[in-house]
């Protein structure tokens, strides 16, 4: 492609256009990698499409014809020149007909500015919604402002990447010169219909609680939009769609405003039309509807003013902000609670102008005048959201969401009340989830004691309550406190022995009270009538299975079934519901059941949960870790320390002097790398070596750490200078500093796992295996085992799990330094993809031949023998002795995702990325091409993201 003013070959133009459309449908962070793959070495083609993507954010990422007078959407939006708009509209016309791609299936909705059609995208075989600009506004010479607002709606909506906001895919112009944009088609109903169904007693699909949860999701979507600096300004039930499965979308962003930018709309209301003084009765009746739209001075439809904030109704447009959307949400809540729009009585035919006048005069009718049974908390939330004084209103939709969620979770609603008594009352309501703080629990005891003194009149009842109330209430607090402290007793270090010992003393004393609580429960149950437990049928079925067994079964099977029956029977008996003649006895009974169930679980032989057994096991390890890792292995440590410090024997360490490391045991040097390796005793058995001195991975083995020598290296890659450092033709901008160069990083020596963490290691420590590719799964010629890497773990999972093991995630610098192992080539084995044979597990010919998806791309020159992940150690190691750093599974890193403008911290290479919302992972995986597994390649996702090809390679500081 030439420079400005150049022309494009038609065939190449179509290729650019097609690639551009395909890239738009990719997640934004994956577009560059996608284009690297599909451009197949045509760097000029890739750079052209990437340049278009960088210069235009969706949906204004339009394929401009390469001419000197090309106009971008951003330029058009600030221009009032019809000629500019004409050139822009010409650019929207694709080389082929829009309707060759889209099959119009008819209009499904219509608004003041556009009509919504359902269309079928023939290229991508999906059904979409297409919003088409109506009428004369498509003519830029007469209505460029309307066109600008239409396109700005598409631009704003597309940049709000949230599950509660419908994504926009493309904008264009059809053969009839109508401007359109396409978006996800939401099938369902709007919130008006939902509110009607809530009030319909014959409709059991919706109730008030479910509708409140939907409003909560709207609040969360708006909180995201406000964080991005966008206010909606037209929130109402008609603009909220609820999908078939409860998914909620905020629609119609035609009046949205980006805060801090000049608003090109005139949102002052247009005066009534006084051109005709003659009105008929029929015309007056038609106009007198609460849904009659109001128009702004420049022709936008505002809609019903029932949801307008007072500042908008009064014409104070400059005062509108997130708090204005808060008011609209409060008005929607008002409608849900009362069954009518604010200011409008059911069935009344009131004009929009009349409602507007009422909004300007004062608040709507109080909720309790319209419905007596509305909970006071909801009334308070609604009134605070609709407060006319801005200082009295929720400042943000996030604050409104917090109060709504508190109401739904039976917690204290800040708009209604606060303080210890309020906390106490709510704690009682949600007594089955005992999570009070220490202060609240103490206040609970005092308050309930006072309550009993004032309210218990029956002498027999009072005697019974006196017998157990103090003990039970204090045990509720103690159990809650002890469970909260379990996580604080990690890692299992000797310096935590005193804290664990004291914790166990308190926990065992609490557990000893279980029998007394069970006796009290039995006393209370004498006054009630037992009911059916929901698991009775399950128990009956198990007993039937045991009785009908006529064939010989293994003793272990019979014992397991018997134990399962006994456990379920005990659970049913302990949790059996009872009916009581008075509310007080019922409350005490249910709370005692919760306490007893909590104590039974707390005292169970479960080494993984918030239990006595888990801390007891932890204490034993902490007491013996020094002996098991250092004292009993002093000779190995003496040898390792001397060897590492010996410059002749271990030149890579350059005379490094270390001390024995608690929790690790030296297991010798790797025969190929010459680097020292160490067994992590807490995660499994000691690894063994074969006759050649190489480790033999086994399911039971613990983590193996390689002591990586410190040094300085060049991190990242560049694609411009073949003779420069880390030259890598597919290198992306995210892999270099702002000038496009690798960055120099200096690291101290550290430990990095020789292999990815295995499923067996994760399961032994947590008691669970989250992996999708779980043991016994046959793929191709292979069966998955516990020796395969753990996957389906989030960044948060890994950080917490490794914290408990006194380990950490590697920083990106540590990961790349270990992966490169002294190389500057794209992959440590070389510069050609074929160099990766035997060293990597990627999407390759074997995967394609054994059931890999037809939609994937594959490395035809590679055959790694696996469809999904391979067991750790399956492929040859790099120069540091690290296996599977190319492909297999992605590996989480410690850093938040960001650029390389900020220098990496000397020592561990950490880079603080302010405000990062995504975390980084590295290395590629079995379902990606080699380009994603380059040493410098980076990927990112949210903290809680879990992927079937995303695992972890632990690291540890050298102390």
Short descriptors:
12% strand; Transferase(Phosphotransferase), domain 1; single chain; 30 helices; Phosphorylase Kinase, domain 1; 4 domains; 959 residues; alpha+beta; 38% helix; 5-stranded antiparallel beta sheet; disordered N terminus; 27 strands
Describe the structure.
This protein has 959 residues and is of the alpha+beta class. It folds into four domains: 56-185, Phosphorylase Kinase, domain 1 (2-Layer Sandwich); 189-418, Transferase(Phosphotransferase) domain 1 (Transferase(Phosphotransferase), domain 1, Orthogonal Bundle); 438-531 and 577-619, no CATH class; 710-957, Alpha-Beta Complex (paralog of FGE (formylglycine-generating enzyme)). The protein is 38% helix and 12% strand. The strands form nine sheets. The chain has a five-stranded antiparallel sheet. A five-stranded antiparallel sheet has the order 13-14-17-20-27. α5 (82-92) packs across α7, α19 packs antiparallel against α20 (497-511) and α22 (536-548) packs antiparallel against α23 (555-575). The longest helix has 28 residues, at 459-486. The radius of gyration is 34 Å and the shape is globular.
């Amino acid at each position: 492609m030439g420079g400005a003013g150049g022309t494009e070959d038609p065939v190449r133009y179509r290729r650019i256009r097609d690639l551009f459309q395909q890239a738009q449908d990719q997640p934004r962070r994956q577009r560059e990698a996608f284009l690297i793959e599909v451009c197949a070495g045509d760097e000029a083609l890739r750079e052209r499409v990437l340049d278009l993507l960088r210069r235009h954010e969706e949906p204004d990422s339009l394929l401009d014809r390469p001419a000197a007078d090309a106009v971008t959407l951003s330029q058009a939006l600030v221009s009032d020149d019809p000629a500019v708009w004409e050139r822009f509209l010409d650019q929207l016309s694709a080389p082929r007909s829009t309707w060759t791609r889209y099959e119009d299936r008819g209009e499904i909705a219509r608004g003041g500015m556009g009509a919504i059609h359902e269309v079928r995208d023939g290229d991508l075989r999906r059904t979409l919604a297409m919003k088409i600009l109506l009428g004369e506004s498509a003519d830029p010479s007469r209505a460029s402002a309307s066109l600008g607002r239409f396109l700005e709606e598409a631009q704003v909506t597309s940049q709000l990447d949230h599950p509660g906001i419908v994504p926009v895919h493309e904008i264009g112009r059809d053969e009839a010169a109508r401007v359109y944009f396409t978006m996800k088609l939401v099938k369902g109903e709007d919130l008006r219909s939902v509110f009607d169904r809530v009030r319909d007693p014959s409709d059991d699909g919706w109730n008030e609680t479910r509708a409140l949860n939907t409003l909560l999701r709207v609040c969360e979507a708006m909180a995201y939009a406000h964080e991005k600096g966008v206010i909606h300004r037209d929130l109402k039930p008609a603009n909220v769609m609820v999908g078939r499965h409860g998914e909620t979308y905020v629609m119609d962003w035609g009046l949205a405003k980006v805060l801090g930018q000049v608003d090109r709309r005139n949102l002052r209301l247009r005066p009534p039309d006084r051109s005709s003084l003659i009105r008929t009765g029929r015309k007056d009746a038609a106009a007198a509807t609460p849904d009659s739209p109001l128009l702004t001075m420049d022709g936008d439809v505002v809609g019903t003013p029932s949801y307008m904030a007072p500042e908008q109704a009064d014409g104070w447009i400059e005062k509108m902000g997130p708090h204005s959307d808060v008011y609209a949400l409060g008005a929607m809540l008002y409608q849900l609670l009362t069954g009518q729009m604010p200011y409008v009585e059911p069935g009344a035919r009131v004009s929009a102008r009349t409602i507007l006048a009422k909004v300007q005069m004062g608040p709507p009718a109080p909720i309790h005048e319209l419905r007596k049974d509305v909970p006071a908390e909801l009334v308070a939330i609604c009134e605070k959201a609709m407060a006319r004084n801005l200082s009295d209103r929720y400042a943000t939709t996030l604050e409104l969401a917090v109060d709504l969620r508190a109401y739904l979770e039976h917690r204290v609603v800040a708009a209604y009340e606060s303080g210890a008594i309020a906390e106490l009352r709510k704690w009682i309501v949600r007594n089955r989830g005992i999570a009070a703080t220490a202060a609240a629990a103490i206040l609970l005891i005092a308050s309930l004691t006072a309550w009993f003194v004032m309210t218990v009149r029956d002498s027999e009842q009072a005697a019974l309550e006196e017998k157990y109330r103090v003990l039970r209430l204090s045990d509720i607090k103690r159990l809650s406190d002890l469970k909260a402290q379990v996580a604080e007793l990690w890692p299992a270090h000797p310096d935590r022995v005193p804290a664990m010992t004291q914790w166990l003393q308190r926990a065992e004393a609490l557990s000893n009270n279980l029998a007394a609580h069970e006796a009290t429960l039995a006393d209370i149950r004498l006054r009630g009538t037992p009911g059916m437990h929901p698991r009775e049928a399950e128990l009956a079925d198990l007993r039937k299975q045991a009785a009908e067994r006529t064939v010989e079964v293994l003793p272990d099977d019979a014992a397991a079934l018997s134990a399962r029956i006994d456990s379920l029977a005990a659970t049913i008996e302990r949790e059996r519901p009872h009916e009581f003649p008075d509310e007080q006895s019922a409350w005490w009974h249910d709370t005692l059941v919760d306490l007893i169930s909590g104590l039974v679980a707390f005292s169970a032989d479960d080494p993984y949960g918030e239990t006595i057994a888990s801390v007891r096991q932890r204490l034993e390890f902490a007491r013996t870790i020094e002996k098991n890792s250092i004292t009993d292995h002093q000779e190995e440590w003496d040898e390792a320390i001397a060897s590492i410090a010996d410059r002749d024997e271990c030149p890579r360490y350059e005379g490094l002097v270390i001390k024995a490391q608690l929790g690790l045991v030296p297991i010798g040097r790797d025969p190929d790398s010459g680097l020292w390796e160490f067994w992590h005793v807490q995660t499994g058995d000691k690894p063994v070596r074969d006759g050649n001195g190489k480790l033999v991975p086994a399911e039971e083995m613990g983590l193996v750490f390689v002591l990586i020598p410190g040094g300085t290296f060049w991190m990242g890659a560049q694609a411009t200078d073949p003779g420069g450092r880390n030259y890598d033709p597919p290198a992306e901008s995210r892999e270099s500093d702002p000038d496009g160069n690798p960055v120099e990083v200096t690291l101290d020596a550290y430990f990095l796992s020789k292999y990815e963490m295995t499923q067996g290691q994760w399961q032994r420590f947590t008691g669970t295996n989250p992996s999708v590719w779980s043991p016994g799964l046959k793929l191709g010629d292979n069966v998955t085992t516990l020796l395969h890497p753990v996957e389906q773990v989030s960044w948060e999972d890994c950080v917490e799990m490794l914290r408990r093991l006194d380990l950490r995630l590697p920083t990106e610098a540590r990961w790349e330094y270990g992966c490169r192992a002294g190389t500057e080539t794209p992959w440590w084995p070389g510069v050609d993809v074929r160099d990766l044979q035997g060293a990597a597990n990627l999407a390759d010919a074997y995967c394609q031949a054994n059931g890999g998806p037809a939609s994937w791309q594959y490395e035809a020159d590679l055959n790694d023998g696996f469809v999904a992940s391979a067991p750790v150690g399956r492929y040859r190691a790099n120069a540091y002795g690290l296996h599977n750093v190319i492909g297999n599974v992605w590996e989480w890193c410690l850093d938040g995702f960001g650029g390389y403008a900020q220098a990496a911290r000397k020592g561990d290479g950490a880079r603080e990325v302010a405000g990062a919302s995504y975390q980084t992972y590295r290395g590629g995986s079995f379902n990606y091409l080699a380009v994603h597994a380059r040493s410098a390649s980076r990927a990112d996702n949210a903290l809680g993201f879990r992927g079937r090809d995303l695992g972890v390679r632990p690291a540890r500081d050298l102390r």
